[in-house]
Write a structure and sequence with these properties.
- The protein is built from no helices and 6 strands.
- With about 100 residues, it is mainly β.
- It has a single domain, classed as Thrombin, subunit H (Beta Barrel).
- The radius of gyration is 14 Å and the shape is globular.
- The termini are far apart.
């Protein structure tokens, strides 16, 4: 287990990515961007302000996988994205609860 510091409370190292994932929650079925990912969580950029504690379903279509990967995740934080132009978006940090391969 990776030791967390005060600056970085993550349990595992994260890697930058630009993977597109489909979020499936309430009436939302939209393609969004996964900005980084680790074994325990991910940072997503979305036009929706999810609330901490909400559980969302994600569908990952990775180039190296034949089938989509279904991910259940819990929102741990949701903050407005810091950019000055373009539509409003949010960075949401999620904790990965489980992964399943779609058939």
């Amino acid at each position: 287990m990776v030791q967390a510091t005060q600056k970085d409370r993550r349990r595992s190292p994260r890697g930058k990515t630009g993977i597109k994932v489909r979020v499936l929650h309430r009436n939302i079925k939209k393609l969004i961007t996964m900005r980084d990912v680790s074994f325990h969580g991910a940072l997503l950029e979305t036009p929706y302000a999810f609330q901490p504690g909400e559980v969302i379903d994600l569908k990952l279509h990775l180039p190296i996988a034949l089938n989509a990967i279904d991910v259940k995740a819990r929102v741990v934080r949701s903050v407005p994205h810091r950019r000055f132009i373009g539509p409003k978006s949010y960075d949401i940090g999620v904790e990965i609860l489980n992964l399943e391969r779609s058939m």
